[in-house]
Amino acid sequence: MEIRFYYLLVLVLSFFIFNSAKAANQLDIVINEICWMGTQISYNDEWIELYNNTNGHVNLDGWILKTNDGTPEINLSGKIPPQGFFILERTDDNTLPNISADQIYTGALRNSGENIELYDNSGKSIDSVKCSSGWLAGENKTKRTMERKNQSVTGFAPDNWQTSANPGGTPKNQNSIGEQSETPNQSQIQSISQKEEKTQQKSTTYPTDVFINEILPSPEGADAEEEWIELSNDNDFEVDLARWEIKDIEGKTKTYIFPENTGIPANGFFVLKRPTSKITLNNDGDGLNLIRPDKGIVDGTSYDKAPEGQSFNKTDSGWTWSTNLTPGSPNAIPTKEQNKANQGLANGKVQAAVSEQLSEKIPLSPALIASGIAIFSGLVILILKKKIQPEANKE
């Protein structure tokens, strides 16, 4: 009986050991997107995305992703979900502010190109990208990533790669065009190139007179929902804010990059709310910088402790706090006299409220007044009787 038990145990253990060491099939996991040029924030912010073509979780422990020169060489760990993505961020988890890295690695990708190989835990090559003579796609100036068109087609096919339609790429999302898109013909490629060239020419110069105009760090309601930042455009034309940045400077800082097709109207305003920007304006002091795509700082401001319910306003004489909130409109700072009048009005309202509350608690109806008079009259008559009675006894 014991022999059979041990024999069965050996069979079960052998089964699990065999399956754990079982090699994956080619293209089970593929290199899906490569940000070899970095991001608008820093050229060091490189990242690589893997994709799971299978219908099950794949354990990447023991897998290796490496370049032909050995830098980087990444010993992978963790699991990648079925039909899911796995993000590797270089150096730290700040490369993609809104996406958590599945793994951090070190080592830079050469802008001149690299061969990249993916091996499973048995040493079998599962996918590869052949770019030693130059990257097959991607754009450094606009920070458009190199995307795979079809996850079921080998990675070393040059025509299976494209430049992302989105600056910054599509981390942990379906690639911008995908496998159903048609390969553009020569005239389309030339048209796209001309459009990108015009965009780059326009982006070499940026308009002035765009400012941080008003901010609300400490609203009377919930900070996470009601904080906001207002920009103003003093130009007589609309300003394109695409790829401009706004960043706070204290505590856990956050950078918000304005997306494509974001404009601020001529002589108008743009209100950016915290649920969109994810920027936390610290109540005990903070500041903001407005930054162009070329990293030039356009405008900035800072403040100490923020009063509750007051916004910080840009004026001709400097920045000041105000109880008059004007998001989307010109700043309107109350004068000292107006503040006193508002305070007096507020005090009057408080007194009126107190009087109203007292009148509600002690209503003076006509019947109550008549009863009071009757009781008072009775007391007076009783006192007079007591005074008159001794005089009558003396007589």
Word description of this protein:
The chain has 395 residues and is α+β, with helices and mostly antiparallel strands. Among the domains are: 24-181, Immunoglobulin-like; 210-322, Lamin Tail domain (Immunoglobulin-like, Sandwich). The protein has six helices and 23 strands. The strands form six sheets. Strands 8-7-2-1-11-12 form a six-stranded mixed beta sheet, with no helix packed on it. A five-stranded antiparallel beta sheet has the order 19-14-13-22-23. Strands 5-4-9-10 form a four-stranded antiparallel beta sheet, with no helix packed on it. The longest helix has 29 residues, at 366-394. The protein is elongated, with a radius of gyration of 36 Å.
Question: Helices, strands, pairings?
Answer:
Elements: H1 2-20, E1 29-35, E2 47-52, E3 58-59, E4 64-67, E5 73-75, E6 79-80, E7 85-90, E8 103-105, E9 115-119, E10 125-130, E11 144-148, E12 161-167, H2 186-202, E13 210-216, H3 223-226, E14 228-233, E15 239-240, E16 245-248, E17 255-257, E18 263-264, E19 269-273, H4 274-277, E20 286-291, E21 297-303, E22 311-315, E23 318-322, H5 336-361, H6 366-394
Parallel strand pairs: 7-8
Antiparallel strand pairs: 1-2, 1-11, 2-7, 3-6, 4-5, 4-9, 9-10, 11-12, 13-14, 13-22, 14-19, 15-18, 16-17, 16-20, 20-21, 22-23
